[in-house]
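Hey all, sorry for the wall of text incoming. These are the two entities for the joint prediction.
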Amino acid sequence: MLDSEGAASAPEFPVGLRVLLVDDDPTCLKILDRMLRKCLYHVTTCSQAMAALNILRAKKECFDLVLSDVYMPDMDGFKLLEHIGLEMDLPVIMMSADDHKDVVMKGVTHGACDYIIKPVRMESLKNIWQHVVRKKKNESKELDNSGSLDDNDRQRGVVDEGDNASSVCAGNWKSVKRKKVEGKDDDDDDEAVEEHEDPSHAKKSRVVWSVDLHQKFVNAVHHLGVDKAVPKKILELMSVAGLTRENVASHLQKYRLYLRRVSMPQYQGRLDSFASCQDSSYGPVGLIDSFNVHGLAVSTQIPLQNRTSIHPGPRSNTNVGIGASTVGQLGLIASGAPPNMVFPSVQQMNKQMSNTRGSSSNIQSSQLGQTPSVVQPYGSMSLQFGEEMPNFLTSSQTSNFSLPGGTMSEQMNKSLTMQQTHNLPQFSFSQPRSNISILHSSGQLLNNNASNSSRFSSALMQQTSSNESSNHILGRLGITTNITSSPANYMKSSFSSFPQDLYVDAQSSFMNELSGNSYPSASCIGVSPQTTSFQLLGSNHDLKGKIKMFQSSLMSHHNTVATVSNRDNNSSVTVKEEIISLSNDIDVEKTTSFAQHKNANIDDDSIRLHYGVGPDMSYQDVLLDDIQNELMTVVGNQQQERTGNTDSMFDYSV
Amino acid sequence: MEYSSLHRQLATMKKSFFDQGFLDEQFFQIEELQDDVSPNFVEEVVTLFFKDSLRLMGNIDHALEKFPQDFDRLDSLIHQLKGSASSIGAAKMKNECTVFRDFCDKENQEGCIRSFQKVKKEHACLRQKLENYFQLLRQVGPVAKATRSGN
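and here's what came out:
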């Protein structure tokens, strides 16, 4: 206490100024501590904001000044500043190496007395006492209408403020707080009136908003509703003796400003919660496994059970959650849900994604980095997406990915390549592809024509259940699941952003263009989830390249698919027409997409994608063949059930 | 005599640090904090810095590996490192951190990786130099003190 120190040798103020130093960097902390001691200040150091807040809450009277870093891991320095302003009303000086004007401005608006740029020099610290004096002076001026503001009073004020800090009196603190934060001129009158009305307050006692008091206040405000809360009612709810309406009024004003300010950082918090929501949505991710499978199965008649069994665990990655919901959508579609349903949800997904993306990629990253197996869901997701969200590939919106393709895609590709080659033996590449096309077609149909597509998809479902295509699909899933973890991380992130873009694009594409457009992309994605999707994630260029490849293959596939489905199902006739139109659209889309996308650095990226399949064309050829095979199988089954003309089927073949 | 030659050596060494831009005037600030109360303050702080910065650089390495596209995270991490380096006057290291940060702003992953290699290099280089310096200082120090007090 200044008194005791003063008693010892009557050191001249600011000697003995009691400073609380908060900085997470140990080097800075040590240096600043030494500097402050050199200034003959009394220093308490703290490396965490929460600890500092606790210290202050416990011993607010023991400090004259707080010196805090801006960027701290456990709490934003500005948030700490707010808390101190609300609860303790101590002068706070912010420090940072960041000298951007907006950050400095933030410090000012949050009520910092000063903002020191790091690295801090002794000279800067020598004069920090002025803020303490200024504050006291302003306080005493408010409180002591008749009091003189000589040095003694000031010093005494410093001491007295501390002594009386704990007393709950009306109004005094308001002036101090007001000085500290933005000016609240309307408080002046209140305080002045208060001064006159409460002569007992000449002693500079003030309302100290302790944690409890503030909590009561907050409870009352929230009970009334932040927007509807009025000081009178808050006061009644709080029922604290000695508290006046004016106290509450100014505190409410401060609180409202605080809420507004923290709504930004709360965005982070929201993100965090959003991230956790994602986590919870990842539960659905687990569903993805089954969901995707279902989706796939629905559309491709691939047994869900098989799917799930193949990739039970990994799917439930957090990132997958995002995709999961997407997949879920797709699944819905596959199961015959009206296309409109998909879009809204997709939109929501997009919104979610954009929120996530917009707010911080960190969350995504953290989400992403959780499990390597994310890749797996992605693979399946891509399948889903590819089928459902074709256009995103072609749409320039893909460039909206917050995650830059660049290295990530490279890394992903590399790992993918490694994995893929490894996995290839297990599953024929073509197999998954064929599934995709099937899915695509079903997806397409669904999008274009809800009823028809649902019929078609259901038809497919019925037919494909016993198909080997299920193996393909499963195999395909397997491939995706085998992706290594490192790309997985990337994939996760890309995945999370991926679905979003997918949705965005898909939606727009769906809305704006015939589903045919999306078809090619979808198949692209579906066909080579690892390559395409990763590519997609990694770079739009890759995607475009892939799209090109797939589009060409799709074209042929479309025809085939259309034919096949036509044959088997009466309802699929419409589907067939759709498919045909889709095929046409695909051509159009292909051209469009090529036109849209200027770059197609497929070569660079596709190299990475080499699964061992070989050059693109052979890739496509395989795909084509497989798809045709798949389709034939599917159709064949249906044929058995119905009669149809097989002639037309193969007429479409490319 | 040998002491003064050591002194001269020390002075030359230190001057070279500044001339070559390894250290800046902030280092003087640190030196000014050293006194009888904290006789080894400079070395303590420098040692603390190099230890803590290893941790920070490890975080950056980890982030570059796991979340290479998360430029916000990288930016935040390099900001910490930069603040730390600037507090002891490690000028070259601080500058490389700024370069890294620029690459983060541009979301240039390649650039980030490359510049971080430079950051690490500067870190190692400065560490070596200061270790030599303190070694020499230790030889001179007590004698210097004695000499001073003796005077």
